[in-house]
Design goal:
single chain; Ubiquitin-like (UB roll); 10% helix
Length: 68
């Protein structure tokens, strides 16, 4: 079974429903300061491992970059 989601405006096909944490690991974004919005709602970091991703979900990921 495959599902389609949108991540930061780009369509991505996944082979199965994953947790948000699994997706972030797959994208190489699991570490650092990030904020995630799932279907218009902010997901607390404490829920990344339990939050499931479903077909047609829209996800926005923002990563804080330090600099000066």
């Amino acid at each position: 079974m495959t599902i389609e989601i949108t991540v930061n405006g780009k369509t991505k096909t996944l082979v199965a429903e994953l947790s948000l944490e699994d997706l972030l690991l797959d994208l190489g974004m699991a570490k650092g300061r990030i904020a995630v919005e799932l279907n218009g709602h902010i997901v607390p970091r404490s829920q990344f491992s339990s939050q499931r991703i479903s077909n047609l979900d829209s996800i926005e990921i923002v990563q804080a970059i330090g600099g000066g």
